Amino acid sequence: MQPVMITAAMVGAEVTKAQQPKLPTTPQEIIQAAVECHKAGASIIHIHVRDSEGNATQDAGLFREVVEGIRARCDVITQVSTGGAVWMTAEERLQSIECRPDMATLTTGTVNFGESVFMNNRELVETFARRLQQYEIVPEIEIFDMGMLDEALRLRGMDLLSDPIQFDFVMGVPGAIGADPAHLMHMVRGLPPGSTWSVAGIGRHQLTLGVIALALGGHVRVGFEDNIYYRKGQLAESNAELVARIARIAREMDRPVATPGQARELLRLNRYY
Ligand code: KMH
Ligand code: ZN
Fold it and tell me: What is the tens place of the pLDDT at every residue in 154-206?
């Protein structure tokens, strides 16, 4: 079985310290949490940053500080968010890539996001895809709903995405695709040959869909961005605790845990040189 890439999404834009006191928010806390997740088995860190008041921001300087801080301490893959938060403008969101991370997310369509709307019209998506190509940053396509997969295939047809493509299925956001394994199977069947994919289940679905992904040969995203609990009613102690649990289950299922080096090969992160 292919090694499993574990992504740690440790911060996000929505969760607060009031909800999860162990949420890392300062650059030093985020860097430290990334190192701990790396030690626990994560090969990719999905990065959001917060300002001094704990609010989501796409400030280029903060992203640079975090990405450089992580790189100084370990070789884990740095993947910045271009999604940011629902209230941000496109320009604001794109600032995160200025620090030249290894990867960046790209959401290929608009979707309801709880009571809000996560806006990604075609012009925005094409602009983001072009900028990532120009900067030679490998994208991870965030699929919040089925139509976003078709839209990603359209971008591939326009040569705005190059194979192999890494997809992340975010399942269970209220207003978006439900966390039904049948939906996952259907989407996986529609991927271009050579693609890799992970699943980010929201809330209690993080563990169950993660295990299903392990069984199907996919990859897994865990962390406070999507889920703050270890089990019902019990907050997780840390992001690393969630990484360690899925890594443990993976080994039991004969899925070795990918090192960052192995993940770089699986994702062909060296495709530009
Ligand atoms: N915070 C969500 C609105 C991403 O990181 O690319 C968008 C998001 C996706 O988190
Ligand atoms: Zn995110």
Answer: 999 999 999 999 999 999 999 999 999 999 999 999 999 999 999 999 999 99
Fold of 6-267: TIM Barrel (3.20.20)
* Residues 5, 66: Cα–Cα separation, whole Å: 21
Question: How much distance in Å is there from the Cα of 132 to the middle of ligand 2?
Answer: 17
Q: In the structure encoding, which two tokens stand for residue 268, read together?
A: 């062909």
Measured in Å, residue 105 CA sits from the centre of ligand 2 at: 8
Protein residue closest via CA to atom 4 of ligand 1: 83
pLDDT of residue 1: 80
Which of 51, 170, 162 has its CA nearest to residue 120? Answer: 170
**Distance between Cα 164 and ligand 1 center (Å):** 22
Q: Which protein residue has the closest C-alpha to ligand 1 atom 7?
A: 83
Structure tokens at 167: 């997809």
Cβ burial 227-239 (10 Å sphere, 16+ → b, else e): bbbeeeeeebebb
Nearest to 10 by CA among 253, 245, 222, 180: 222
* Domain residue ranges of the chain, discontinuous segments joined by +: 6-267
Nearest Cα to 267, choosing from 52, 7, 20?
7
Instruction: Tell me the two tokens of residue 225.
Output: 């961005």
Q: 198 Cβ partners below 8 Å, 6+ apart?
A: 5, 7, 166, 167, 168, 169, 213, 218, 219, 220, 221
pLDDT of residue 273: 73
Is pTM beyond 0.85 here? yes
- Percent of the chain having pLDDT more than 90? 99
